[in-house]
Amino acid sequence: MQQQHRVLLAEDNKINQVVAVGTLKKLGYVVDIVEDGGQAVAACAAEEYDAVLMDVMMPGVDGYQATGMIREHERANGLKPLPIIGLSARAMAGDREIALEAGMNDYLTKPLRTSALEEVLGRWIDRSVVVD
Ligand SMILES: [Mg+2]
């Protein structure tokens, strides 16, 4: 029996949460939701996830800052880097580079399309297993 993969969704917008969770469940993922970067950092330290979907714009600690804190925690503790996929409602030139520089592995624009989410999560979760 195939083990279900766990995804953490860090997203402050309720409507975006509902849309993303519906899509993730349809794709067979188990989802936890947090609403800001600080909660995302705490959840990643406390639980084991296969990937994080990280909204870049959140109140308080934003997605870029949270990613930096998660990477620092991983380095300090010799942990395998968690795949972190940035989510943004903007589709501006250079946004992908900003996300990658912040330590994210990949980047998707909202509204999320099922096919894009499936492709990106499949790629990073499979890769993390192979690298391990
Ligand atoms: Mg947001």
Describe this structure in words.
The protein has 132 residues and is α/β, with parallel strands linked by helices. It has one domain: Response regulator (Rossmann fold). It is 48% helix and 18% strand. It contains five helices and five strands; from the N terminus they run E-H-E-H-E-H-E-H-E-H. The chain has a five-stranded parallel β-sheet with strand order 2-1-3-4-5, with helices on both faces. Strand 4 (84-88), helix 4 (95-101) and strand 5 form a beta-alpha-beta unit. Helix 2 (37-46) runs parallel beside helix 3 (63-77). The protein is globular and about 35 Å long. It starts with 5 loop residues before the first strand and ends with a helix. The structure holds magnesium ion. Magnesium ion is lined by residues 12-13, 55, 57-58.
Summed up, what is this model?
With 132 residues, the protein is of the alpha/beta class.
Task: Jot down its keywords.
132 residues; alpha/beta; Rossmann fold; five-stranded parallel sheet; 5 helices; 48% helix; 18% strand; globular; binds magnesium ion
Provide the spatial order of strands within the biggest beta sheet: 2-1-3-4-5
Shape: globular
CATH architecture title: 3-Layer(aba) Sandwich
Instruction: Please state the CA-atom Rg, rounded to the nearest Å.
Output: 14 Å
**SS-based class:** alpha/beta
CATH topology, what is it called? Rossmann fold
Number of helices in the DSSP assignment: 5
* Count of separate structural domains: 1
In percent, how helical is the residue content?
40-55%
Oligomer: single chain
Q: How far apart lie the N and C ends?
A: 21 Å
CATH superfamily membership, which one? Response regulator
Elements, N to C (H/E)? EHEHEHEHEH
